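User: Could you write out the 3D structure of this protein bound to zinc ion? I've included everything you need below.
Assistant: Certainly. Input first, then the structure.
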Amino acid sequence: MSNKLSILKYYLTFRYRRFHSRKELTEFQQKKIRSHLRLITEKSLFYHIYRNKELQDFPVIDKKIMMDNFDIINTVGINKDDAAAFAIDSERTRSFSPELHNITVGLSSGTSYSRGIFLVENTEKEKWAGFVLAKFLKRGIAAKYNVAFFMRANSNLYESVGSRNIHFEFFDIYADLSENLKKLNNFDADIIVAQPSLLLMIAEEINQGRLSVHPETVISIAEVLEKEDEKILRSAFGTDVIHQVYQCTEGCLAATCRYGTLHLNEDIVHIEKEYLDDKRFIPIITDFERTSQPIIRYRLNDVLVEKKNTCPCGCVYTALEKIEGREDDIFEMEGNDGQIVKIFPDFIRRCILFSGEITDYRIQQMPDGSIQIFADIDDDRKTRVREEFEKMSIDKGFRLPPIRFNAYSYDKSRKLKRVEKVTSLINYSDMCPELNP
Ligand SMILES: [Zn+2]
């Protein structure tokens, strides 16, 4: 089957697949998982000993286990050193079309500083393309679209989506911003895809009257989209919703529906929930479409927040309130009783938001436990932020660490994280930007 026909087939599958109940979805998943595990235990050395076992008998793995066992987990006979050398080389030369044995190899730093390598086969790419098109092409696949795609690196993963109707224009985020904006001004984009930090810069240009764009769809990728930033974007772009794709090396995990609610993509991934409180959980994912690099019971380090109310779209997939951030970014405070008190990024964020008007900000907990706030705010506002932190420390029972204020700054080669725990200063300054799928 030709590449395009295959994408069309997946497009139709994802566009028209409907489940009427959770029960129907669960039965579908069970069937998919059974045949997937049968295939993987045959082809992957790592999983061979689990043949004929049920999913719950498989080990829960993480990025470290995946990377340590890369050669025996993958089913396409690629070894880690070759894959790493190949991926680094194509990124350095900024040429992203070559493939290693017909497999796309990419690097991802994620946000947890250790390098991950991912493999994607052509058929998996076509499925991915079909999936994305099915989710976001409002006027169907036969209409014409101009898609402006801002990313760290052009990958042949995305080029597979292009066709006669669908014109992709890639904007390298390392290129000069004014050049990118000039290009965008002339492009007439129907769909703009970028990380929130970049969307905010574009929004600012629109608000200043220097840029004229009228996209029907705006899609936020790669970084957490904060609610307050979403509001700014909706008003600047004049759209009802800002769509989101929650995607990582390990797969495409969630996408927004027409109401802007993030739903887990439970028709391609099975997700076990490790609850942290009554609505926050860490996902353990099994991707039953991914065969070259199997993702089976893979524990991510993201904290997701479940939505308690049902979404009006009627979709049976789990609805999310938001992606809260990385598990690594939960602040750790010294409790009054000497125990560690964990504070979710959301509570940290509120200390800024409750203290006055929204401005750009970043809050970091440093390795010594102290808190650094980067924001251009006056002394009154600083006092109010401090008061919010004090209130929280009383509510949650911890000793307030020193708080320092700095001017706002943000290195655009890194992912924007409003709330971040810095674990090591060495890794922090050494971290190099890498391909973000
Ligand atoms: Zn929905």
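The chain is about 35% helix and 25% strand.
User: Perfect, thank you.
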